[in-house]
């Protein structure tokens, strides 16, 4: 079999799958080679190649199928077993060709205008260049002293963003709270949970960690249950409270109260509630104010709001009612990389009592980390606000996004997707063969094909929609959607949010769904006819 075209050729001989013999690699790098590792002219030359590559990628993104048709191991079989001992001539350009020819055909194109399967991982020119700028500067702002400007910019940015999202003042630095920028909501939930755990154990004694109980709904993201296990909460002490379609799959305050009361009567200790604004399955919104009231009646249970997706929509005043109910929460997190053009990764978290985070996650200050300029000042050391010490300068890209697009620009971005989702919902409702399964609140439409009565039963309807999703996603140049199973109902999810998505992409996606539905229903009718 001929070797892959990207394998390295040595001295004009046969390709060796990227490996070069030890005899050929015994020389020591010259000082001039080391200097070129961050040579300004070389950086400029290669940087232009990368910018051109990315620009060409976006220009041709519509030519890629959103989801690749590959099997496990497809890439590993094409790449060398060992890393090259020495770089090939023009190695960077060759590597970029491999990205184009080998890697891009095997990725799911999250920035595709036809990607409707997941909540967005939004990109923007400023967000991407902000990432590049932060990577180029490459500071490590774990303490104020380690990079004063990075720390203070983060403090400014989280207050800017908090005000843009209409968050309660008590969650901002200006109101006695504060925020930080982490990688994901998974981190934020874990940090809040550990802070709540240590605060409660300081009150009741560390030996009672096995009595702590945490609460969520059956729609809460699985990241919460994972965080609970990491934090030492017993698996059997994570209460998943059922939700129902009649309640739009939102967590019931009365059901929460009953669960907490039963635990108290059993000698257990209610610790933490994770409420959600915009659940993953259907974007359900939990009644946060009422849930906070329940939590307050049970020993001050810590209430965290996971607004990973829908938190971005709070930038629009028309969604202010969602967050106006959150005055009493202890913490809140949202992913700016999902819908606010900040590129992966970027999760903002705010807490009403930063001291609780620092008490749980703080580390003893080593001498090497001390700085005379910080002595006597109440500075923020962000290493004490999260699980990691090494951290990225994420605030820089958020600052650039806010400066270059403005709050109004972000509102327009979100509103355009909400409008497209409303248009898609209207198209679904106009076709009597379909139904909208859950209320559309933001830019996610949950829908399904109604099962012909002669098929009967929910099981048959679910199987029909599984087939519809499979065929729609398999269509050439078609959309890529996902599914959810909620309350025993299988539904298709159309999540609109890609920066490049336009209304024509939404209409084209719906046309594909309709065409595949027609084909499936004809086949079903023929099958029923021949079965008589």
UniProtKB/TrEMBL annotation:
Keywords: Decarboxylase, Lyase, Pyridoxal phosphate. GO terms for biological process: amino acid metabolic process; carboxylic acid metabolic process; tyramine biosynthetic process. Belongs to the group II decarboxylase family. This is Tyrosine decarboxylase. The modification N6-(pyridoxal phosphate)lysine is found at residue 338. It holds the Pfam family Pyridoxal_deC. InterPro entries: Aromatic_deC, PyrdxlP-dep_de-COase, PyrdxlP-dep_Trfase, PyrdxlP-dep_Trfase_major, PyrdxlP-dep_Trfase_small. SUPFAM superfamilies: PLP-dependent transferases. GO terms for cellular component: cytoplasm. GO terms for molecular function: pyridoxal phosphate binding; tyrosine decarboxylase activity. Gene3D superfamilies: Aspartate Aminotransferase, domain 1, dopa decarboxylase, N-terminal domain, Type I PLP-dependent aspartate aminotransferase-like (Major domain). Signal peptide: none annotated. Its cofactor is pyridoxal 5'-phosphate.
